[in-house]
Amino acid sequence: MAPPLSRGTCPEAGLDAAELSRIVPALAAYTRPAPAHPWCAGAVVLAGRGRTVALHEAVGWAVRYGAYDESADVGVELPPWQWVPMREDTVFDLASLTKVFTATVAATHLDQDREVAAYVPEFGAAGKGAITVRQLLDHTSGLRPELPFYDRPTAQGRARMLWDEEPVHPPGTLRVYSDLNLIAVQYALEAATGRPLAVLISEEVTGPLGMLDTGFNPPPAALSRMAATEDQRRPWGRLDRGMVRGSVHDENAYAMGGVSGHAGLFSTAWDLALFCRALLDRGGPWGGFETDQAWFMGELAGRGAYGHTGFTGTSLVVDPESDSFLVLLANSVHPTRTWRDGSAPRAAAATGLARAILKAETGGPV
Fold first, then answer.
1. Sequence-separated (6 or more) residues with CB below 8 Å from residue 141
2. What share of the chain is helix, strand, coil (3-state, %, to 5)?
3. Which of 33, 64, 211, 264 lies 20 to 30 Å from 73 when distance is taken between CA atoms?
């Protein structure tokens, strides 16, 4: 059986080489101060079409800083010999890209038009009885963006916070992106199946797709391949943990033992490309994706492209019309989340792929 993906040339992928070659230098520029801080310390970008990956390169550093000096607003650099270069197989904290994996298993096990309380009766308290699984997945549940679960030391206390939470908008009336939605989906999944979320994703998604580097709570042996995230301290963070590497950055997911429906997965660019290819082969997403969002999809937006982003600097875009996909993984919270500044690098990379497709198809200028 042929592999689901293989490395190849731009002509083999149906992409214009000159246009695609612009992506990496542009991305590398975002690893340098411009004008005050870099967008990220380093990144890995992968682009493909069909079953051919024509671009897979790393730029910058997986680890560069040992701390963040908030008084001077500078990163405290490690000695140069301790810097860790970014590699194509660097493992990243995916942050909210975890949500699309949770949504994928939800599509198999949950009736999207059924009330969440049918799976988890406690969830129906405080005016949430009519909220459906679909409303959780498309962020129209009316729930606020997040809660401070990290302040509660027990699983029972964290669950009680969610049960007691009232919608801030009538369910089904307004889209408000919320971590609470996918946390609630996790509770529903685990109640419906009797299996932990980590097992569901491993057995039903990452395992069958051969995503060998994808999972929650990566083992200590993988630390040398991990991209660092943040010098996490108050007041910009919610916990005082110091420089985070090899452990989930999101404070709520950390409080939940590293496994949550909204955050906690780690992966590589190649593994995510396998996931993108599976989405294209299926003919569409399982749910939980954003569609035609130019702010991170650039010129791929506008014709049915879908994807998602993660707070740590991660993103993927899938374009069914051209049978193409883009993965961009960066550590844009290294050394601090206060340096995060928009999604221009994501949009620029996606635009580079869009133009490589267009020029290959038309042979003319783009």
1. 128, 131, 135, 167, 171, 178, 180, 181, 184
2. 40, 20, 45
3. 264
> Is residue 99 within 8 Å of 182, Cβ to Cβ?
yes
Which run of H or E residues covers position 289? none
Residue partners of 20: CB distance under 8 A and separation at least 6: 10, 47, 54, 55, 352, 353, 356
Task: Give the residue carrying structure tokens 């200590």.
Answer: 220
Burial (CB count within 10 angstroms: exposed 0-12, middle 13-18, buried 19+), residue 235:
exposed
> How confident is residue 40, by pLDDT bands cut at 50, 70 and 90?
very high
Q: 244, 225, 235, 311: which is closest to 67 by C-alpha?
A: 244
Token readout for 345 is 């690098």
What residue spans define the domains of the chain? 6-90+268-362, 101-199
* 33-41 long-range Cβ contacts below 8 angstroms, 24+ apart: 36/73, 37/73, 37/339, 37/341, 38/339, 39/313, 39/330, 39/332, 39/339, 39/340, 39/341, 39/344, 39/345, 40/313, 40/330, 40/331, 40/332, 40/334, 40/345, 41/65, 41/228, 41/331, 41/334, 41/335
**Taking the model in full, what pTM does it have?**
0.96
Q: Does position 1 have pLDDT exceeding 60, yes or no?
A: no
How many residues can be counted in the chain? 366
Q: Are 64 and 32 within 8 A, CB to CB?
A: no
- 162-183 pLDDT, tens digit per residue, is 999 999 999 999 999 999 999 9
Radius of gyration of the chain (CA): 20
Look up residue 298 and give its two tokens: 């650039």
Q: Strand 324-330 to strand 6-7: parallel, antiparallel, or no bridges (unpaired)?
A: unpaired
Strands 6-7 and 52-63, by their bridges, are parallel
Pairing of strands 265-267, 290-291: unpaired
Mean pLDDT within 67-75: 95
Residue 7 · residue 351 · CB < 8 Å:
no
